């Protein structure tokens, strides 16, 4: 650390040296170095957030075919950003949710039933528009175009990647499931979103 307390006599001595030599004194050069170093350290802290954690999902359909990925990132404010990139799915609007068990078996009967129900540790009703909701696993719908591709980017603070009461990495784990139909965001327990057509397990990076 640099001591910013300098006597008046010492200041006069430094200024006299600078006038004679035309060069900044040693003390001023050291202060400049210190300020530059402090700025570099601050820049490193901003560019490398230490508290950010991430996870990912490999999505498959009921035949086991790869149909996309999802990436999750939680910042130091506890906000999780989810980005889903899907392909090879039926065109239309599809409900998508986090489910309460980290087992997404496409060969189960019915497919992906091993993922259990929606992730709902707070025991709420379903739906982003339900006054008695929402499930921690509830999300906006995924829109899939005529070419079978769709992207969803959204944020949530109802589920976390870090330890806590709503963590995705509890003893059961968590799965991300895509449904056949649109989620009406009101009807309990799953928004009339139909059968499960794709899914995958949320895994830490």
Structure description:
- With 205 residues, the protein is an alpha+beta fold.
- The chain folds into 2 domains: 8-47; 53-204, Immunoglobulin-like (Sandwich).
- Helices cover 18% and strands 27% of the residues.
- The protein is built from 2 helices and 10 strands.
- The protein has helices at 8-21, 26-47, and strands at 53-61, 66-74, 80-86, 92-94, 96-99, 142-144, 150-156, 175-179, 196-201, 203-204.
- The strands form 2 sheets. Strands 1, 2, 3, 5, 7, 8, 9 and 10 form an 8-stranded antiparallel beta sheet that branches.
- A hairpin with a 4-residue loop joins strand 1 and strand 2.
- The longest helix has 22 residues, at 26-47.
- The radius of gyration is 27 Å and the shape is globular.
- The chain starts with 7 loop residues before the first helix and ends with a strand.
Beta percentage is: 25-35%
CATH topology label of the largest domain:
Immunoglobulin-like
Tell me the name of the CATH class of the largest domain. Answer: Mainly Beta
Q: CATH-wise, what's the superfamily of the largest domain? A: Superoxide dismutase, copper/zinc binding domain
What is this entry, summarized?
By secondary structure, this protein is α+β, with helices and mostly antiparallel strands. 18% of the residues lie in helices and 27% in strands. Strands 1, 2, 3, 5, 7, 8, 9 and 10 form an eight-stranded antiparallel β-sheet that branches. Strands 4-6 form a two-stranded antiparallel ribbon.
Distinctive features:
disordered N terminus; globular; alpha+beta
SSE layout:
Blueprint: H1 8-21, H2 26-47, E1 53-61, E2 66-74, E3 80-86, E4 92-94, E5 96-99, E6 142-144, E7 150-156, E8 175-179, E9 196-201, E10 203-204
Antiparallel strand pairs: 1-2, 1-9, 1-10, 2-3, 3-7, 4-6, 5-8, 8-9
């Amino acid at each position: 650390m640099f001591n910013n307390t300098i006597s008046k006599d010492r200041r006069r001595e430094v200024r006299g040296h600078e006038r004679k030599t035309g060069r900044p004194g040693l003390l001023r050069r050291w202060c400049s170095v210190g300020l530059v170093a402090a700025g570099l350290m601050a820049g490193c802290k901003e560019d490398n957030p230490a508290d950010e954690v991430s996870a990912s999902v490999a999505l498959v359909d009921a035949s086991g075919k790869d149909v996309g990925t999802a990436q999750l990132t939680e910042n130091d404010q506890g906000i999780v950003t989810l980005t889903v990139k899907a392909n090879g799915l039926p065109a239309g609007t599809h409900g998508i949710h986090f489910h309460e068990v980290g087992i997404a078996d496409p060969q189960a009967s019915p497919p992906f039933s091993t993922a259990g129900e929606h992730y709902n540790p707070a025991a709420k009703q379903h739906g982003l528009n339900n006054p008695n909701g929402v499930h921690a696993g509830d999300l906006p719908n995924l829109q899939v175009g005529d070419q079978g591709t769709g992207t969803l980017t959204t944020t949530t603070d109802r589920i976390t990647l870090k330890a806590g009461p709503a963590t995705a990495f509890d003893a059961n784990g968590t799965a991300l499931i895509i449904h056949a139909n649109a989620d009406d965001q009101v009807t309990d327990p799953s928004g009339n979103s139909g059968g499960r057509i794709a899914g995958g397990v949320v895994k830490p990076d």
